[in-house]
Amino acid sequence: MADAAVRGTRRVLVAADKFKGSLTAVQVAERVTAGLRRVAPDVEVEALPVADGGDGTVDAAVAAGFERREVRVAGPLGDEVTAAFALRGHTAVVEMAEASGLQRLPAGVFAPLTASTYGSGELLRAALDAGARTIVFGVGGSATTDGGAGMLSALGARFLDADGEPIPPGGGGLAELARADLSGLDPRLAAVELVLASDVDNPLTGPKGAPAVYGPQKGASVEDVATLDAALAHFAKVLEGVGGAGAGAGSLAAEYAASPGAGAAGGIGFGAMLLGARFQAGIEVMLDVLGFAPALERASLVITGEGSLDEQTLHGKAPAGVAAAARAAGKDVVAVCGRLALAPEVLERAGIRRAYALTEIEPDVATCIAEAGPILERVAERIGSDCLG
Predict the structure, then answer these.
(1) pLDDT, tens digit, for every residue of 273-316?
(2) Strands, E, within 219-362: which ranges?
(3) Which residues lie below 8 Å from residue 330, measured CB to CB, with a gap of 6+?
(4) 24 near 18, Cβ under 8 Å?
(5) What is the pLDDT of residues 191-234, one digit of tens each?
(6) Given 3.90.1510.10, 3.40.50.10490, 3.30.530.20, 3.30.1220.10, which CATH number is that of 57-283?
(7) Nearest-CA neighbor of 351 among 19, 55, 94, 5?
(8) What Å distances lie between residue 195 and 214, 222, 272, 338, CA to CA?
(9) Taking the complete model, does pTM exceed 0.85, yes or no?
(10) What is the C-alpha to C-alpha distance for residues 192 and 194, in angstroms, rounded to an integer?
């Protein structure tokens, strides 16, 4: 068990993701630190909030020392919103959910056929304007299924119907696409390293594609899913025939569409690949950007976690990435979570010695969500007693 293995530890690294709907990653670190210090006042705690490319990625970068930059961009429905990206030196962290996420839709409103990623393109352009030469593009939590067409439009691409008019926004509008022109794309993109950071590896279309797997989460009906899948396939097909300055990207459109990560965030992964993006597991990218390796070297015990530790956690989510890196460095790892749905042996294989859930202290889930902070502090006290006594 972890208790004996890590007893006496005095340097703790808290590298947890958000508890979605309850606590940000920064707040998780603050609450865990407070609980630990109640039982071990002299413990050295280093907080490094983490994210896997989805919502919360910019906040994690800012907590790690990046500068927060705000800009007005188009939301998924076209209304103007204030979105943020993070900048340190010539490296920017851009989170598509800041502009085009479900969080930007009014409560209870979905727009599966018309939501656009245009604002995400504006965010990328703002990062270029700020002098970024490396852009980590975190994608996830999107309200959109437009294959990144809106993003590409904001960066200078043109998508026209049979009459030579711009097609309507959103994935549904792609069905009207007759001609694509990538020659006007911002030339600065050619000199930038663009990293597509995502925790999903779905292709663009098909049974495992963006519409089929994630469309229903964005309000898409069965008919909408079929419409979007056909529209995205048509989008990729038209791009195959692109000539001129966009010919290089266009000739690879079919290959990109079938590539892992193309279906991320409603297909914005596909659009990013057309811009030359390199796909990488989001948590791996973010651990590197956030400076996890040196922080890990300083620690003897690592505390990671997220709202729900379940099967999804094992497939590219932040706690799994943290635990894998820590195990490779020979460090002990425990996890905190709101809800635990993994058996001890599964946790062990993932590199997590033990998980502590809020529901162990408060069985009522609604109470756990409403009072997550104070309950998490009590959980951290248990970790302190078990591991630092």
Answers:
(1) 999 999 999 999 999 999 999 999 999 999 999 999 999 999 88
(2) 278-281, 301-309, 332-340, 354-357
(3) none
(4) yes
(5) 999 999 998 999 999 999 999 999 999 999 999 999 999 999 99
(6) 3.90.1510.10
(7) 5
(8) 22, 33, 9, 31
(9) yes
(10) 6
